[in-house]
Amino acid sequence: MPPAVPARWSWRIKALIGWLLIWAAAAHGAFEVNGKGARTAALGGAFGAGVDAVEGIWINPAANARGTRWSAGTTHVLLYPGLEDSPSLNALALVAPVVGGGLQVGFSALGALDWDEQVGVVGYGRPVHPRLALGMDLRSGGWQTTGLSHRSWSIDLGGIYEAGWVNARHYLRLGWMIRDWWRSSQAAGGQGGAKPPRAFTLGVGLGGEAQQVLVDVERRAGRTQLRAGYESAVLGMAGLSLRLGGSTLNLDWMGGELGGGVGYRWGGWRFDFSYTYPLGPSGAFGGVHRVSLGYRRP
Q1: What is the pTM of this model?
Q2: 34, 88, 107, 166 - which has most CB atoms within 10 Å?
């Protein structure tokens, strides 16, 4: 597992890193160092059945399998702004239509004084049936601190099933993912016991032209996480959307978060903002702000 925090760090950063490393022992991840965008965060992280969004590459490798246009996005995250030296995260993502499917590339990096983490992902998804799309991605994650560093690798699998219109107003879409289907050790010494456990996720998306509800249920290492989000267009304000979401771990609100946000589309551009507040001990450090900017080629 990652090493102890250097003694010269401020006590607030020490407390934050220490709590997250304790969480890592159970959840196998110090920070949520991925490119999850503001839209996904505002929806409680529930995007297992989401499609056609560049940030979907961090959730389900089949999310952009039917993408027919080039798209790109960037996200900036201010983690726990209540801290003097708040960690920050920056991410980039790209989706390109290739060989009947969608090629996806993403990179995110977190910096906190002498601590750095990076995650890169390359994936590909394509339709294998008019209703079914499958995808796979390769991830590489690394951490580095004074005198120590390590990089690990993993492969994720995913799928999207278009169930279709359940009535005149509502469309149903299902998603599934296997996170860390294959993985290497996250420990500096490469110990097998430090391999992250596989995560199995089922996602449901139900919506129409102006609204949708997304729900994910994830099972990892004996723990169940429920994520849910609601998104609605604002009547009379073309291109503007409002979002609400939240998550809970084993139905314990102290292990979840609540959030919301707004989004605006203008031509091929997309602007998103979210604010999420953790309900566990890290809530003492404040909420998390995310700002995303994306563009889809006409």
Answers
A1: 0.86
A2: 34
